[in-house]
Amino acid sequence: STPAVVARGVNAHDMWAAMFGGAPEVTQDTKKKTEEEEEAARKEARKRKASAARKKREAEAAAAGEATESASASSDNQKPVAIEASAGGSRKGSSASAPALGTIGEDDVILESEEDRAVGEILRYKQEAETMVQSEGAAAASAVELEKFAMRAAAAQEEAVADLMRQASQQAEVEKAAAVQRAIQETEAKVRAIAAEEAAAGAGEAQELAVQQAREAALSEAEERHAIDKADAITAAVAEALAEAEVKHQAMLADVQAKH
């Protein structure tokens, strides 16, 4: 798990969840590096502790040996001096600074200081590793969000174009139906006019033939004109839809660039 932030006591998982809605993914390399640094710091602390303990034992042994030699070389009247030497340590030679048995000496103070520093280094490594993980996670999350936004913008643009195409197609169908209806009405009017003229002339067969030819000609002309009108309408609608989609797309891109 991600270590806590030492400076403020804030759990990294809680902070990440508040910012991005999920816990950060700690990579194996980062975790392994942090564990190796912690283990190295512990080994160094143990080494310093063992060295300080060894120095302390050597100093105590030297003090005890010197006190024993002083006690055996002195007379009975000098025994209190020997006892004092064994209790407080010799004032001579290199062992003058050695602590007495059962007391806290300089080596103990050094040992505690080294342990505190080692623990501080471990905590600092943890905090630096967490900061790096948070920074990498935030950058990755920002990139993912930007990509998602771009995908949503592209999908919205495609949907807008499709909607405009559907509207254009529906409008073309309506115009086609109206044009066909008008053509039929015009044809029927022509047929009636021709029929009336032929009836007046008394040419029955000629009248029927003329009526049929007029009807076919009118229908053919109406269908041709409708096909041309439909093609023109669809072309214009598509061009307009593409132009509007391009404007929307440019506006979305400008908005994305402004936000990021």
Q: Your description of this structure?
A:
- With 260 residues, this protein is mainly alpha-helical.
- The protein folds into two domains: 12-146; 156-259, no CATH class.
- 83% of the residues lie in helices and 0% in strands.
- Helix 2 (28-73) runs antiparallel to helix 4.
- The longest helix has 96 residues, at 106-201.
Give the N-terminus to C-terminus distance in angstroms: 31 Å
Helix content: over 70%
Main sheet makeup: none
Overall structural domain count:
2
Please provide the count of β strands: 0
Mean pLDDT: 67
Q: What structural class do the secondary elements suggest?
A: mainly alpha
Q: Which word captures the global form?
A: rod-shaped
**Stretches where pLDDT falls below 50 for ≥5 residues?**
1-10, 75-111
Number of separate helices: 5
- The whole-angstrom Rg is 50 Å
| Element-by-element helix/strand order | HHHHH
Strand content: under 5%
Label this structure with key terms:
mainly alpha; 83% helix; rod-shaped; 5 helices; disordered N terminus; 260 residues
Give a topology summary.
Layout: H1 12-20, H2 28-73, H3 79-88, H4 106-201, H5 204-259
Helix pairs in contact: 2-3, 2-4, 4-5
